[in-house]
Amino acid sequence: MLLKIITFFLPWHLRRRALNSWFKFDIHPTARIGLSWVFPSKLIMDDHTEIGHFNMIIHLDEVHMKVQSIIGRGNWITGFPSGTSSPHFRHQPARRSKLILGNSAAVTKNHHIDCTNTIEIGCFSTIAGYQSQLLTHSIDVFENRQNSAPIFIGDYTFVGTNSVILGGATLPSYSVLGAKSLLNKAYDEEWTLYGGTPAKKIISIPKTAKYFTRSEGFVY
């Protein structure tokens, strides 16, 4: 804990070196972390990745941010590491508490991301707006135990503000999840707007929509 506190107050050029040396992280020289508490067991930040201010990222096996991916401000990203002595999730020996962001993926502000099981967010995808929840674990009332399932968010997707995505859900590539929606199952039809509580197909998206063919992650 003392080493964590020391690194938190170091200037970034020294902080990055300390995190790589003391905690065996793999943070590229062009990557950056703001005033955030970021201590998963394993952290990989590829070139030109960024974690903004006031994020809490703890209790995960791994966070891997691929090229030019971004985590904005004020996000709470936690999990439940594997390999502990706890009876929780003992029936899931293959479970891994991981967050993977593809190239140019973005998580904006004030979201809650529960990575008890793996969450993968594809390339050029955006968790947009505020206060969305991605929740990979819950209580299995039939078995009376905690259970978890991964979440997969495809490439070139857009998740609208204040949405809820539950474990076992998939948002296919080239798709949109409308604001305030609940995604609780795995869909596979691309080029689709999903929305509602629970979410279902609303309309097809034309393949001329420019968001889905952009070559830069940030949208001006």
Topology:
Layout: H1 2-8, H2 12-22, E1 26-27, E2 32-33, E3 37-39, E4 43-45, E5 50-51, E6 56-58, E7 62-65, E8 70-71, E9 76-79, E10 98-101, E11 106-109, E12 112-115, E13 119-121, E14 126-130, E15 133-135, E16 137-140, E17 145-148, E18 151-153, E19 158-159, E20 164-166, E21 170-171, E22 175-177, E23 182-183, E24 192-195, E25 200-204
Parallel strand pairs: 1-4, 2-5, 3-6, 4-7, 5-8, 6-9, 7-10, 8-11, 9-12, 10-13, 11-14, 12-15, 13-18, 14-19, 15-20, 18-21, 19-22, 20-23, 22-24
Antiparallel strand pairs: 16-17, 24-25
Quick tags:
globular; 7-stranded parallel beta sheet; UDP N-Acetylglucosamine Acyltransferase, domain 1; mainly beta; 220 residues; 9-stranded mixed beta sheet
Description:
This protein has helices at 2-8, 12-22; strands at residues 26-27, 32-33, 37-39, 43-45, 50-51, 56-58, 62-65, 70-71, 76-79, 98-101, 106-109, 112-115, 119-121, 126-130, 133-135, 137-140, 145-148, 151-153, 158-159, 164-166, 170-171, 175-177, 182-183, 192-195, 200-204. The longest helix is centred in the N-terminal third of the chain and has 11 residues, at 12-22. The chain is globular. It has a single domain, classed as 3 Solenoid (UDP N-Acetylglucosamine Acyltransferase, domain 1). Strand 24 (192-195) and strand 25 (200-204) form a beta hairpin. The protein is mainly beta. It starts with a helix and ends in a 16-residue tail after the last strand. The mean pLDDT is 97. It contains two helices and 25 strands. The strands form four sheets. It has a nine-stranded mixed sheet, with no helix packed on it. The protein has a seven-stranded parallel sheet with strand order 1-4-7-10-13-18-21, with helices on one face.
